[in-house]
């Protein structure tokens, strides 16, 4: 249960970052890839 909740929180954070990057620039894409590789 805890791991599933953490996964959902991480998903929401990724979606928020995608929206922010679309509003500004796409320079956060490399940061997103690093976050995905860490998990």
From TrEMBL:
InterPro entries, per the entry: BsrE-like
Pfam families: Hol_Tox
Name of the protein: Holin-like toxin
Species assigned in the record: Lactobacillus paragasseri
Lineage: Bacteria, Bacillati, Bacillota, Bacilli, Lactobacillales
């Amino acid at each position: 249960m805890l791991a599933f909740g953490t996964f959902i929180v991480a998903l929401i954070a990724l979606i928020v970052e995608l929206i922010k990057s679309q509003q500004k620039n796409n320079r956060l894409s490399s940061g997103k890839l690093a976050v995905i590789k860490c998990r």
